[in-house]
Amino acid sequence: MKIITDEFGVLSNGEKILLFTVFNGKMFFSVTNYGCCITSIRLPSKNGGFDDVVLGYSSFPGYINNFPHFGSLIGRYAGRIANAEFSLGNIQYLLTPNDCGKHCLHGGYPPYDKMLYKPVTFKNRHEAGVKFFRISPNGEQGFPGNLKMEISYSLTPDNEIILRYKGVSDKTTPINFTNHTYFNLNPAGMQASGSYVSVLNHEVQIYSEQYLEVNKELIPTGNLVDVENTAYDFRKPRSLVSGVEELGGGFDNAWVIKKELDGQKSLAAIVREPVTKRTLRVYSSQPALIMYTGNFLADELGRNGDVYDKFAGLCLESQAFPDAVHHSGFPTSIVKAGELYSEETLWHFEF
After folding, report:
1. 226 is in an annotated binding site
2. Is 15 one of the annotated active-site residues of the chain?
3. Residue 131, beta-bridge partner list
4. In this structure, what CATH number is given to the domain that contains residue 164?
5. Is 121 annotated to bind ligand?
6. Which domain holds residue 55?
7. Catalytic residue among 127, 203, 317, 344
8. Number of domains comprising the chain
9. Where do the annotations place beta-D-galactose binding (predicted)?
10. Is 126 a catalytic residue?
11. Which of 65, 127, 225, 334 shows the smallest number of beta carbons within 10 Å?
12. DSSP 106
């Protein structure tokens, strides 16, 4: 196991941005302390080199804007919160209305992927990686409490990337972290059509019997709907293109993950790419999985001059239920003052 540290860029105030690359002898990933962004996951290719199976930028300046949130840490609350507000006790908290002009998406402003985190590398016989630390101050993004954050990304000898999210707040607050990496397990690059190869040929299986019903603005109604006889039925492996055609558009939805034991990781999804035979298995302690098919990607200039368009990447975001602060029937996302928030996601790659 090896960790390499490089300078990735410099902020306008002179602070240096670092890039950490973790290698297990078979595959490697890179992550920066700017936004805890995963910039690269490279798997062996048939020609003896490596293919990057996530979307991203060639250099640091791309991540300063990064509107699609490539590889980003998302918080304090991933997903949407209706009307950009919530109440705890008798206090109403106002958030950033950055979605549809009235809802809060991915925590609002300032986004967590535009923050600088203190990095500490670690290595043992089981894994090697980086821990990132930051204190989100009381009132940041509109949320209560000084939140001490510890985010870690690590690689195991078994080709597993483990994402751990921890936090303790001095005030009761909603917490819901996730990662917004876009996967494309067959990154063949630009096609003759001028667009990046899509993920629609990927076969997806989601271990879920229900999905969250949403309105036209993608806000949960509170209803859990059985996936049977719907476009959302991925209980058996199914190509994304078949689901997209049945739905009449891309996915940006939450599935309820079958939980074996509370607080333990369960298998949430399997993604297979039929050409390269690469497979990604997603395990998570979280109750929901968002599958987002890159519906809003359009002419995004990415790595090596590639242009990412709709369906160029697939996000599998393990998290709490979106808008849980407004639905008493959803698993709670409220963490009491002094209590530990701790969640874990594991990506297992086969190649």
Report:
1. no
2. no
3. 120, 152
4. 2.70.98.10
5. no
6. 2-350
7. 317
8. 1
9. 180-182, 252
10. no
11. 65
12. T
